[in-house]
Every structure is written in structure tokens, then in C-alpha cells.
Amino acid sequence: LLLLFNAAAFAQPQIPPKPTSSIYVQDYAGVLRSETKEQINTISSQLAARTKAQVVVVTINTLEGSPIEDYALGILRNWGVGDQSLNNGAVMLIAVADRKSRIEIGYGLEGALNDAKTGQIQDTYMLPYFQQGNYDAGILQGYIALAGEVAKEYNLDLNSQPVAPVNSQEQSDISPFTLLIIIGLFIFDWLFLS
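User: That's the sequence. What structure does it adopt?
Assistant: C-alpha cells below.
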């Protein structure tokens, strides 16, 4: 039993202690510019003042083998993110060396931010920048999208919109269906009207 208890204790993620000053952005991996941190702090402070909801960004180098879900949930609970009675906190966790990210949501925000929505935020606004090695831009754009969804839940407008990166491949304005119609018209014209 003692061995099992020690193994279970060892498997628990090593969550950093709750920050004593601002909780909103903790850049342990050192990937964020000071302007980005300031913007996140400003938006989160205003959001918390008006709604009691808290949106927190945490970057770390590695999870050291812990599941990212457990680590993010540990931060949400141990740091007391969000209003205690409303349970309206959100944690955006990025493990840079592990190339993983997670958005963990308190129960009070699950109606507005289900797993599909948080996955979409990561896929659209974060991962394309991360793939370019630009963690600062990916985190900021993902944060703005996340904070915007929280604000929407409380009928607020943040006055800033996230920007998804432009796909590097050029895309045609003509859909495949339209192209088939054009080809069909040319063939019809050639066969019957010539």
C-alpha cells in the first residue's frame, strides 16, 4: 500500500504555487513579450471586475510526464481561478517543449465554452502560430478569442477580435462545383453549338 501511495503521489503534477501578485499571466517558459503580458493583464482585470470571471494564461517548459488535463485542472483548482461560487474560471496552459496546449474551463463557463469550442479556438488561433514557432502571437490570439467568448457569455464586448493566421497556400476563389459547371458549358458549347 505504501508503494502504491508513493507512486500515486509521484504521478501528481507539480503545480507552481498560486502567484502572490497578478494571477492572469504566468510565463514560466519565457515566450511572451512584455506588451503581450500587459495586454492580457489589462483585459483579464477588466473582465474580472465586470463579471467575476477570470481567464488565466500559463506557459511552462514541460509537463514532466503529467497529463496536460490534470496539470491545467490543478491550476484551475489550486489557484482558485474564477469566482468561487460561480466557478467561472478559465486556464489556458501551454507546455512549450512538449508541444501541447489545453484550455480548462470551470463548470460555470461550460455552457459557453465546451470542449469543441475550446478545441476550435486552439486549432484556429493558436496552433497555426505555434507551428511557425511564434508562441507569443498564438497565445495572444487564442487568449483574445477565449476572453471574447467569456465576455459574450456576460453580454459584454471586449473591443478586440482575434486574428487567425493567413494560410500560406493560395486558395482559389472558384469552388470545384463551379469549375465543373464551367467545364460542362465549354463541352456543351463545343459539341452542340460548333
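Residues 4-10, 168-175 have pLDDT under 50 and may be disordered.
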